[in-house]
């Protein structure tokens, strides 16, 4: 028997989730208060889970690395959240959202999970509006929608360019209400450094208190991780500075399989890199592609000011190559096309590594006021960063690492390969296949937290004897010692190079060889360079200050140590997946017109990696993907 | 790599260093040499820190995260202004092209009794979380909602609620107020929720509890100077404070004894 049982219930997909909910065991209200649940991470998935579980009567302990749960990086999501409401009467349905998401993911996601996501999407909008989330409205008072990449219907709900902020604050407030009721206890400025297993079940976590440096243990009957993605393996990404793989990686080392690590999303519209000291890249929402037109000059090396380049000398290449989706082609496709233009020597701006996103036609058609109403805050942000006014001059954009579809493997119940460890949101691998469509990350985070975990965790607790374990148990002591010894090791190196210098070097290797396109030789090179870099890191990193204290350099060092290991696994995964799909583009596997060419015969599966110990090669397990409701087909947006 | 029209400048920094809340702090001087004008203020500090670390010294500690002006984590006082000289901008979005070669820049933490210093430029703002948990929410459990469009909300109301809800909780309002009042922060939340039909049921209890919590945390009183709104990176309007005060007065005048909302 395969080690990976997806626990998909079977039966018709339309009624699968409802049937499953009926058949799952329940925990009666009086018993809920006897259960402790740990939630790690307070972004959309974590905060919504903590709120929902607290409302049900469980004792929740919520942890975050930030000083306040409201800082989690979900806050930065700009464009919107999808839901199959069909308020526009334009042909949307649960089936269509399901279809678009499977196709958008290039047929590498599990059908049952995606169907459920599409089903609960409408409930999310209802709940968020009830919470007072101020989503955009029409003059008649009803909710407004816009269109987004990879879809031909308008199903994206939004709050100007701050949808993530508003949804996160909604979830945060719901959680803080449970804090007031003492159903949720908050532990801020804590970083998860280990997962604790007792008899093979997840029973707690070990964290570092980032203010005092103390290593602390917390026990629970189940652990929920919602710790986000790992785009910061590239150093430069649109993620926040504290986004890291550390929590997920530690769980991986305790036995949680890591699925599809090579599936990373390079977002097509980010502000280009401006200098060596740049610490992060800033996204310009995909929603801009509703009104902005992407172009480069037809001529190579054309250094004229964009206003001096006449219409007939511009190549609106997305409209040319993909006439039916045009500027709203999905992210992976749009990013690759931008790269092709730059590789052809037709990139723009001082670096030549950018393309234009031009609003001139939209401003002429709708007026400056209408454009400002829709995108004002994004235009301001662009001007602050670049010093250029996008109302007068086209934006310069270029793809940047943004989201990771890969993550800890979970079954239909969102449980990892460790019993009692559930993984939600970007931290799991489940719903987006090899490419995520815009406005689907917020949907998935909230679906997992508000509408899936409240049911599936009850079933787990009701089916498993939950013996109370004290944090004095040997397993906690062992985990604490592991965490302490890694910290001592980092402090003891006393080398000559800063943590950031290693992180930047890793980022360059990953971007070069495991970025927008990959090939066998490049990946082999990366697999030589990363272990060397890792060795140098452990011999030469410099962490100043003390460990028993606020020490941001020590925090970064621990995270980079884990990124170095993850980077290696990503390259192995990319090397072994000998096909192109979604965001994973192998130069060797493409159609004659440069599109991703899948190999459904050999790679229609999830690759989930099992940790075998330090220095040992990980084992690649497969979960075969079956497409029973949607026919496998070559993706086309033409 | 080639961004826009960046050039390099040299600066002198006077930075507040304080090992912990228990120890006294002092200003220390650093040279920031060869700073690209395309860099953000935080990237300039990163550059200074890289040099400090290379010398084996402790870097300047400051809170930061998203670096795109939305998470509210960063914030300190630059030359006497919360978040620095540029209106409507957090320090992470402040770029060095706003400074001149040779300039001396003074950097210090938010100073308020309710925001104790943790280290250097880091302060403890958990008081804000406690204020939100005292009533900054609408009491609805997951799974209870009707269809979202059953409740039309006039666009002007929705827009007003949104404008108040834009607050990022950075604390610049407190830092720039001579009384260290948190009125703008509290008012933004009161105003966001009281503009919406969903927030009506508990609006009286909400404002009373949130204001009481603000006072208990040790924030000062509001004397409506408007310094908060001027420093706010999201431009939260002073009219929200007027709305909060009217909500509070209204609540005191019309409250029925013995009636309480859900948990409030």
Description:
The complex is a heterodimer of chains A (638) and B (264). Chain A is α+β, with helices and mostly antiparallel strands and 638 residues long. Among the domains of chain A are: 133 residues, Succinate dehydrogenase/fumarate reductase flavoprotein, catalytic domain (Flavocytochrome C3, Chain A, domain 1, Alpha-Beta Complex), CATH 3.90.700.10; 136 residues, Methane Monooxygenase Hydroxylase, Chain G, domain 1. Helix content of chain A is 37%, strand content 14%. In chain A, helix 4 packs across helix 5 and helix 14 packs parallel to helix 16. Chain A is globular, with a radius of gyration of 24 Å. The mean pLDDT of chain A is 96. Chain B folds into two domains: 112 residues, Beta-grasp domain (Ubiquitin-like (UB roll), Roll), CATH 3.10.20.30; 121 residues, Fumarate Reductase Iron-sulfur Protein, Chain B, domain 2, CATH 1.10.1060. In chain B, helix 3 packs antiparallel against helix 5, helix 5 runs antiparallel to helix 6 and helix 6 packs across helix 8. In chain B, a hairpin with a 2-residue loop joins strand 3 and strand 4. Chain B starts with 7 loop residues before the first strand and ends in a 10-residue tail after the last helix. In chain B, the strands form two sheets. Chain B has a five-stranded mixed sheet. A two-stranded antiparallel ribbon of chain B has the order 6-7. Chain B is an alpha+beta fold. Helix content of chain B is 32%, strand content 13%. The chains are: A alpha+beta (638), B alpha+beta (264). Chains A and B meet through helix 3, helix 5, helix 6, helix 11 and helix 12 of A and helix 1, helix 2 and helix 3 of B.
């Amino acid at each position: 028997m395969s080690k990976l049982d997806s626990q998909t219930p079977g039966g018709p997909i339309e009624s699968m989730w409802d049937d499953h909910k009926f058949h799952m065991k329940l925990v009666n209200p009086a018993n809920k208060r006897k259960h402790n649940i740990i939630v790690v991470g307070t972004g959309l998935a974590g905060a919504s889970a903590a709120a929902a579980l607290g409302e049900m009567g469980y004792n929740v302990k919520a942890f975050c690395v930030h000083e306040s749960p409201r800082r989690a990086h979900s806050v930065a999501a700009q464009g919107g959240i999808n839901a199959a409401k069909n308020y526009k009467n334009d042909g949307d349905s649960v089936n269509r959202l399901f279809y678009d998401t499977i196709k958008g993911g290039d047929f590498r996601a599990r059908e049952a999970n995606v169907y459920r996501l599409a089903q609960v999407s409408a409930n999310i909008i209802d709940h968020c509006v009830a919470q007072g989330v101020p989503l955009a409205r029409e003059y008649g008072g009803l909710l407004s929608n816009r269109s987004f990449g990879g879809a031909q219907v308008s199903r994206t709900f939004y709050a100007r360019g701050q949808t993530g902020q508003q949804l996160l604050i909604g979830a945060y407030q719901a959680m803080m209400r449970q804090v007031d009721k003492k159903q949720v206890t908050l532990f801020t400025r804590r970083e998860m450094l280990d997962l604790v297993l007792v008899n093979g079940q997840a029973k707690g976590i070990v964290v570092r208190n980032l203010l005092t440096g103390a290593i602390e243990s917390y026990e629970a009957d189940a652990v929920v991780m919602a710790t986000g993605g790992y785009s910061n393996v590239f150093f430069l990404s649109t993620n926040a500075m504290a986004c890291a793989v550390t929590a997920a990686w530690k769980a991986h080392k305790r036995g949680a399989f890591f699925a599809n690590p090579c599936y990373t999303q390079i977002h097509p519209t980010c502000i280009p890199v401006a200098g060596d000291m740049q610490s992060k890249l800033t996204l310009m929402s995909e929603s801009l592609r509703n009104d902005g037109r992407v172009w480069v000059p037809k001529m190579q090396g054309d250094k004229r000011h964009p206003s001096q380049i006449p219409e007939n000398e511009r190549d609106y290449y997305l409209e040319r190559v993909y006439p039916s989706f045009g500027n709203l082609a999905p992210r992976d496709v749009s990013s690759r096309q931008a790269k092709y233009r730059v590789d052809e020597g037709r990139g723009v701006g001082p670096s030549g590594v950018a393309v234009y996103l031009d609003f001139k036609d939209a401003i002429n058609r709708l007026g400056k006021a209408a454009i400002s109403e829709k995108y004002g805050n994004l235009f301001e942000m662009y001007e602050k960063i670049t010093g250029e006014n996008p109302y007068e001059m086209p934006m310069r954009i270029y793809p940047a690492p943004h989201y990771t579809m890969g993550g800890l493997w979970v079954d239909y119940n969102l449980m990892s390969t460790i019993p009692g460890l559930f993984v939600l949101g970007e931290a799991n691998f489940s719903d987006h296949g090899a490419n995520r469509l815009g406005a689907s990350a917020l949907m998935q985070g909230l679906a997992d937290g508000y509408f899936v975990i409240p049911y599936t965790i009850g079933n787990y607790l009701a089916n498993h004897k939950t013996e109370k374990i004290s944090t004095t148990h040997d397993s906690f002591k062992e985990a604490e010692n592991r965490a302490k010894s890694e910290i001592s090791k980092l402090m003891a190196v006393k080398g000559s190079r800063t943590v950031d210098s290693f992180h930047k070097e890793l980022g360059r290797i990953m971007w070069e060889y495991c970025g927008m396109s990959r090939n066998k030789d490049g990946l082999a090179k990366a697999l030589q360079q990363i272990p060397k870099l890792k060795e140098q890191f452990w011999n030469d990193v410099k962490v100043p200050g003390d460990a028993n204290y606020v020490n941001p350099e020590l925090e970064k060092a621990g995270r980079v140590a884990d990124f170095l290991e993850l980077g290696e696994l990503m390259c192995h995964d990319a090397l072994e997946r000998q096909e192109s799909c979604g965001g994973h583009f192998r130069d060797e596997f493409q159609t004659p017109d440069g599109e991703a060419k899948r190999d459904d015969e050999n790679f229609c599966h999830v690759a989930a990696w099992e940790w075998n110990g330090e220095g040992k090669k990980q084992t690649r397990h497969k979960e075969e993907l079956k497409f029973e409701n949607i026919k496998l087909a070559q993706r086309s947006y033409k | 790599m080639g961004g826009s029209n960046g050039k390099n400048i040299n600066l002198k920094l006077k930075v507040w260093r304080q090992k912990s809340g228990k120890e006294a702090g002092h200003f220390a001087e650093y040279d920031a040499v060869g700073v690209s004008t395309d860099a953000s203020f935080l990237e300039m500090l990163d550059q200074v820190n890289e040099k400090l670390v290379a010398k084996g010294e402790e870097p300047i500690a400051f809170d930061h995260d998203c670096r795109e002006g939305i998470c509210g984590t960063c914030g300190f006082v630059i030359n006497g202004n919360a978040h620095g000289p540029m209106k409507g901008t957090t320090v992470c979005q402040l770029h060095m092209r706003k400074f001149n070669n040779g300039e001396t820049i003074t950097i210090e933490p938010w100073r308020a009794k309710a925001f104790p210093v943790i280290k250097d430029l880091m302060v403890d703002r958990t008081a804000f979380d406690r204020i939100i948990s005292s009533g900054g929410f609408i009491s609805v459990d997951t799974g209870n909602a009707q269809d979202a469009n059953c409740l039309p909300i006039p666009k002007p109301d929705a827009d007003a609620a949104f404008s108040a809800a834009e607050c990022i909780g950075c604390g610049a309002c407190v830092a720039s107020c001579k009384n260290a009042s948190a009125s703008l922060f509290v008012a933004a939340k009161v105003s966001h929720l009281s503009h919406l039909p969903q927030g009506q049921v508990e609006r009286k209890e909400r404002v009373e509890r949130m204001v009481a919590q603000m006072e208990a945390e040790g924030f000062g009183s509001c004397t409506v100077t408007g310094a908060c709104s001027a420093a706010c990176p999201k431009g939260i309007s002073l009219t929200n404070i007027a709305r909060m005060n009217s909500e509070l007065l209204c609540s005191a005048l019309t409250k029925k004894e013995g009636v309480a909302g859900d948990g409030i």
